Every structure is written in structure tokens, then in C-alpha cells.
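Sharing in case it's useful to others searching the archive later.

Someone asked me privately for the predicted structure of Na+/K+/2Cl-cotransporter, so I'm posting the question and my answer publicly. Question first, with the sequence:
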Amino acid sequence: MKLPFRSQPPNPQPPVEENPSGLGTFGGVYTPSILTILGVIMYLRFGWVVGNAGLIGTILIVVLANSITFLTALSVCAIATDRVVRTGGAYYMISRSLGVETGGAVGIPLYFAQALSVALYTIGFAESVVTAFPDLGLSQLYIALIVTVGVGILAFTSADIAIKAQYFIMAAIALSLFSFFFGHSVEETHIELWVNNKEPFWAVFAVFFPAVTGIMAGVNMSGDLRDPIKALPIGTLAAVGTGFLIYMILPIFLAMRANSSTLIAEPLIMQRMALWGPAISLGVWGATLSSAIGSILGAPRILQALARDGIFPPWMRFLGQGSGPNDEPKIGTLVTFAVAIAAVCIGDLNLIAPVLTMFFLTTYLVLNISAGVEGLLNSPSFRPSFKVHWALSILGAVGCLGVMFLIDAVATCVAAIVVIAIYFWVRQRELMVTWGDVRRGIWMALLRMAILQTDHTDDTKNWRPQFLVLSGAPTKRWPLIQLAQALTHDRGLITVSSVLPQGSRDVARQAVLERRIRDYLQRRGVQALVRLITAPDPFDGAERLVETYGLGSIVPNTILLGDSQQTSHRDRYCQMIANLHKAQRNVIVLRENPNLSYDPWHESKNRRFRIDVWWGGGIQGNGSLMLILAYLLHSNPKWQKGQIHLKLVVTDETAVNEAQSNLDKLVQDLRIDAVSEVILANGRSFATILKQSSKGADFIFLGMPSPSDDKLFVSNYERLQQWTQDLPTTVFVLAAPEFNFQEVLGEN
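And my answer, the predicted C-alpha cells:
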């Protein structure tokens, strides 16, 4: 019964090898599992359950409880027959399915629950001995310490010896059951099918359920099994079936031999009914000792697996060491023994016992989720020989969660908080693992669904920039990536791309370079995809990228590149922009002023950024896109102290007031926090006005003319460069044709 840092890469588990001297199905799985199932609840609380729920109510409780256990056992069998379950049992299964973070979040509490359970069982054994021999004046503490030391020595000596000791305990439990079945009635009674005005049904269910949660005792011994793939399913299901059969028969005898009031009042009523009363005491003692042995065998193996996977800090890696040909966790056993001794000395574990139960049930819950998700995703790598429909595993998970709240809602919440805290602690350490897990499969399934559900029709309601950043080496043009990150702010995808010279990299080296760039971006806090391509020249490569890159309807809609300063490449550069425009892409060119005395990306709490948007072409085309980009930049937390200035130049003094009114109304209708500013030319050229008005800005947005004529577009682009020669960072914007950015703005 189960009572109520960035880290260095982890050490991999040792390779799987045949273990001819390992434990078999009966000794390694069935025995510890059935002895944990047939625990003290059966001896001390089953009569109380029958007295409160009646015969039919008790049978219903047994069926419901065993259904949840059976579903969990099926999930265990599915996972166990898909892969070799090595040291760590439940932790190993969860970490290899749902990831090392989830495995650690469940595994650490499970270890302490197992370790502290040793103290719970030895204290329970001591209490029963003191109660059985009240005249001897025995000390409960000393008896508990002696029994804990004995159990610890047994486990430290050999798991095989401990398993053999459990055979004697099984014999004692079998003797107690035979003595009970061939016993007698304690009073004249009639069978009460239903009992009214007693404890609520679910309260009685909560008391009984821990009696059937012992199926992981065998799983915890996975690393010591001769053939875990065969032994775990057979042994676990056999133990569940045996326990179910016994728990279905026992209430019939109890209901036939005593009234409900007697069953409720006397915890050891089975002793009075037994043919030989002391046999029941032997069964109680055997049940507590077997559970203690099972816990002290299982806990060190979980600790060993946690240490080997690098869950703990590096200085605790010694806990992963094994000894002897069977790789027994001697060090882990000593640590568990110390934890158990400390808990025994404290004595009163009633306050944390419900939380320990929640940790066990959390393990079963997550195991069901693991098997359910693996089955639902139907990954080619998940091929268990024992097939279970994913819906059964999910049903088992729901049942576990419901039972947790029925047993103790507060303890459930406490356990959940602990598990979540450990999850984020492990995740923060950024462990590097050598195995895959189901999380990538989940994202792949969701990605497939999303791509197939996303058609190729332009949707102004959900438009957002999907950037293809032609940055080359990220270190050389980092501001391009900074701009893309500032404009998306987790609302769009960024792909950092580079065109490599033809023949400079083979496919393998190109993949390595992509991974290096991706790692560099992650270290700088940028979430982006990376794409490299080889081409005769960078312009052809960029056009090829735009033409071929993407998946389904998910393609970059906005190309971000740096300004070209080389006059020899100007014609080809402008031709590339024109081709990108014809490909229905937005083109954004970042032009920086290297002579600026300040960095526009520099963060300062007291600095108020200014974003100038020059409004010239109306709301159609470039104007709308510039406003959208300015709004996106301003909505970034780093730029929220900034102010958008919407500027318009007029040549006629009589048009100033009307233009100002129209611009104010536009800002109001578009619901953009911007300052509208109408500037009277007074004979000045636009270049002069631009330099005078925007010299104090941090960012300037200027529209590019449509590249309908190649030669004219080159001269227009050169004119933009001349206008902005001494200005702060400027962004040239060319909106994709035939896309209604006015609807994106949502003008009233």
C-alpha cells in the first residue's frame, strides 16, 4: 500500500545488455507488486469499507478503483513493450516519453515519497507490535529504528536477497488469507447490500483506493530484471488481476460474518473471524514489511537514474554509481536509508502522508498521459508489442486526477505546486539529453494540422509580418535581426538567411553552420529559424530563397535586407528588390548611419524614442504598411515609451488646416497613438524638410516608389539614399502589390 543552473550534459544510461542473473517475472515484478497491493488497508480498513458502503457499494468501489489501476497497468505495459525500461522505472518511462523536465518533476517527488514511505511502514509495523504486546513495555521508536536498519541492511546486501525475503512475507500473507477464508462468523447477521446514513460513498472510496496503487513496485525494479519487456506486462497485469480477485471475494465473507456496526467499530475484525487469529497479525506485519522492502528497493534506483540523467547538480553525480554485475545502487541505498532513519526519528509523518500519496498518483497520472499521447500521435517510433488504444490511457489519467481530488484536494494542490516548481527548475538548467521525447511529435502533429487548415488566401484579419532576413553572417548585420525581432515581438516568424558562394560548403558542413547560427541566436535571446543556400551570387540566392522557401501557405511575406552602399552592385540590387516586389512580397531596407553618436537599439529607462513616419502616398500601399510597422515597433515593450510622429508635407498654405484635420481624423479612426504633424514646405525641397524635421528621430520610415521602370527605380533609390545620408536609422518600405493593408489597419 502506498500511504496517504545551466547544466552540463547528463551522463547517459549504460548500454542495454543481457542480464542473465537478473530477476524474473515472478520474483522481480509479481511478488513486490502483489505484496504492495495486499497491504494494511486490506487488514485494517476493508471491514470499515464494507460496514460503511454495504456489499454492493464495496464491490462497486473495488471495481472502480481497480479499473483505474488496470488502465494505468495497460499504459505501463504499452510503454514497457515499446522500449527497454532501464533503471528508474516510472521515472525512466516518463522522461523518455514526455521529456527530461517532466521526468525530473515527477521523479524527484517520487523518490522522496518512496524513501519516506520506508519510515511510514516501519513506524506502522512498530505500532502494531506495541499494540499486540502491551504488557512488554516496548518502545515504538526503537522497534521502528531496528526494523528500518534491518530492512536497509537487507536491501544494501542484495536486491535478490530482499526479493527472497519477500517470498516468506508472501507466505505469511497467504497463510492469513487461508485462515480468514476458513474462519467463522463473529455474530449472527444478514447481508447488508446497501448501508445508509454512514460515511459518504466517495469518502469511503478515498480510504480504499490507496490499497490498489502498488503496481509500480515491480516497475521500480526494471533495472534488475532479466527481461523487462516480457516481465513487466505479465507480472504487473497478473498482480492487478490477483488483487482484484481477492478484493472481490473478501467483502462477501466480511458481510456474511458481521454486522456493519461491528465491521466499523473493530479495525482488526478479520482477526476475530480467522481460523487462527495470530495469522492475521503475521499478515499485517508481513504487509508493512513487504511495503517497506519494496520502497527501499525502488527509491535508490530512481535516485540512481535521476543522477545519471544529470537532473541533480554536477556535484551529486556520485549518486548515479552502481556496484557489482547487477549495477546495484549501493550509494543510493545508503542515502535512502539515511532519509528513512531521519524520518523515523521525527516519528509523526501524518501531515505529509497525504502529499506522498499524491506523488504516487501523480506518477500514475503522467504515465497514462505518456502512453495516451504516444498512441494518439501514432509516431513510427512507438511500436509496442502490447497495444493499448490511446483513449484508454487518457481515461486512466482522468480517473487518477479525479481520485486525487477525492482523496485530498489540498494535498493534490500542494503536490501540483511542488511538481510544477521542480519542472521549471529542471527546465531552467537547460539539460542536454541524448534521447528524443514525445514533445516534438506533439508539435509536429499540431504543425501539420495548422498548415493543412491554413489556406493560401490572404487574410487581412490575421496578417502579421513573417520575416525573411537577408543578414548574411548575423554578427556582421545584427541590427537587421534586432529590427525583425522588435517588429514581430513573438507575433510572427523570423528566418535568418544567408547566401553562400557556390561550392563553398557541402550539405553536411552547411547543416553544421546552420546549427551554429541557430545556437548563436538562442544565446542572444532571438527565436528564429535559420536557412542557408548556395548560389552564384547573393542576388540570385536571395531571389531563389524567396521563390522556394516556406511550407504550404506559411511563407515569408516580408523581406528584410540591408542598404547597398556599393555603386557597382546598385543596378542588380534594385533589380532584386523589383523581383521581390513582383513576387508579392513586402520589402524593407534598413539604412543605418554609422556616424551617429548613439545606438538606436540602446536601452535606457529615461530615454523617449521617436519614430517618424513620412506620409506621402496616402493610406493605400506604403503608407498603411509604414503605419503598421511603426505601430508594431511602438508596441514592443522596449519602445513603449516612444512616440510615433505622422508627418505630411503640403505646399499650399491654405491646405494646412484641412490636411491637419484629415490627418488627425485618420489617426483617430486607425486607433493608433500617434502625433500628426502637417509641415508647410515654404519653397523648401522635401530633402531639406526631411533633414530638418527628422534629425532628432530614432527611427524614420520612408516609402519607396513602385519599381515599375527599372532605370527609374534605380535613380529613385539613389535619391532616397542621398536624402537620408546624414539622418538617423531609416527604414525604406515597399508594400506588396495587391494586398489591402488598409483592412489590416482596420480603418473605420
